[in-house]
Amino acid sequence: MNPHKPLAMSLQDPIKHGGNLREAAKKYQTPLADWMDLSTGINPNGWQPPEIPAYVWQRLPEEEDGLHQAAQQYYGVTSLLAIAGSQAAIQALPYCRSQSKVGIISPAYAEYNYCWRNAGHEVIEIDADHIEAHISNLDVLIVINPNNPDTHLHSLSTLHRWQQQLIRTGGWLIVDEAFMDSTPKHSLLRHDMSTMPNLIVLRSLGKFFGLAGLRLGFIIANPTILAQLQYSLGTWSISNPSRYLGKKALLDTVWQQKTRLNLKQKSQQLQQLLQQQLHQYFDQTIFCTSLFCYIRGHNAQLLHTQLARSGIWTRYFAKPQAVRIGLSQDEQEFRRLLSALKQVSD
Question: Cis peptide before 146, with omega less than 30 degrees from 0?
């Protein structure tokens, strides 16, 4: 482990995430079963797991079960580590460095700021347009690509330039690609990782594969960083059933190809719906990835509240004011969203 230790932990209030349906049900007095949850950005038609054999439940996890090789094949890299979802890496990485100045492109997934601050690092949130003015003073730059929540996609050339600037001072570039599976051509993993020893890429089976409950992801980095993380995370951090199903999902190339096409179509359908229903009444800006749309504007909270009154749960962001809306599962849910949006516009 790194002999230098960050400052003492200073706990902040826990972060709230999408999917908090029980809280919504209580607040809006709508039974839990009556809600349509579009708050998380998770594929609503995820990979369908097969039945798990009894022996998988009865044995401890084994490294030689083929998961590692399946992930190497899927991501096209050799140096990677299986982790219990991206969150495990987000929480552990801050303890692999001595006190650092950390830049996070904002708006961003709030756990990054929370975890790095709690570990004693200095954290600043930076607008994407202002990175060049700050990067020479940073030890770590954290980029979510495409970004959650505002969907911004940074080009490979831009990321490579930042990586080269950071490597001169021993800095890290951390790129969270949790929403990249639908568009792998934009992934930094297409580069030769051996030329980028300061690059750390996070991937997850939670979003594209729709397996958030599996708690399985991967961190791609140089072997030294992975060894630090492995020591920190300990033995058997991933359950045997998760490893068994993760391997099968990663090897199911037919499902992956079909799903990329399906998600692209559904995302375009959602974007068209939002543009048609909101442009007259709401002064909003709409951006979309293949798994969710981000609607920014001063009426965002009103939109979130009125959809909630129709039993449709979305994710509201206060700074800047915005709403994130995920994909509906089927045509029936899509029509329900259409009906609710029409009521909002009336």
Answer: yes
Residue 28 burial (CB count, 10 A): 15
- Is residue 14 predicted with pLDDT exceeding 80? no
Query: What tokens does 170 get?
Result: 């021993």
Cβ-Cβ contacts under 8 Å for 150 (sequence gap 6 or more): 107, 287, 294, 296, 322
Q: State which of 221, 251, 281 marks the end of a domain.
A: 251
Per the structure, the complete domain to which residue 31 belongs is given by 21-45+254-345
Q: Which CATH number characterizes residue 226's domain?
A: 3.40.640.10
Whole-angstrom distance, CA of residue 85 vs CA of residue 219: 9
| 1 — pLDDT class (breaks 50, 70, 90) | very low
Tally Cβ neighbours within 10 Å of residue 309: 12
Instruction: Please count the structural domains in the chain.
Output: 2
Q: Work out the pLDDT band at 7, boundaries 50, 70, 90.
A: very low
**pLDDT tens digits, 264-283:** 999 999 999 999 998 766 66
The mean per-residue pLDDT over the stretch 61-75 comes to 96
* pLDDT recorded at residue 53: 97
Q: Which of 227, 251, 275 is the last residue of a domain?
A: 251
- Identity at 42, one-letter amino acid code: I
Looking at the fold, whether 101 and 179 belong to one and the same domain comes out as yes
- Do 131 and 234 belong together in one domain? yes
Both tokens of 320, joined, read 């800047």
**124 within a domain of the structure (yes/no):** yes
Q: How many CB atoms lie within 10 A of CB 238?
A: 20
- CA distances to 55, 142, 215, 269, 310 from 77, rounded to whole Å, are 30, 21, 21, 34, 45
Q: What is the pLDDT at residue 279?
A: 78
Adjacency order of strands within the sheet including 199-204: 80-83, 217-220, 199-204, 172-176, 140-144, 101-106, 122-127
Co-location of 200 and 311 in the same domain: no
Same domain (yes/no): 172, 314: no
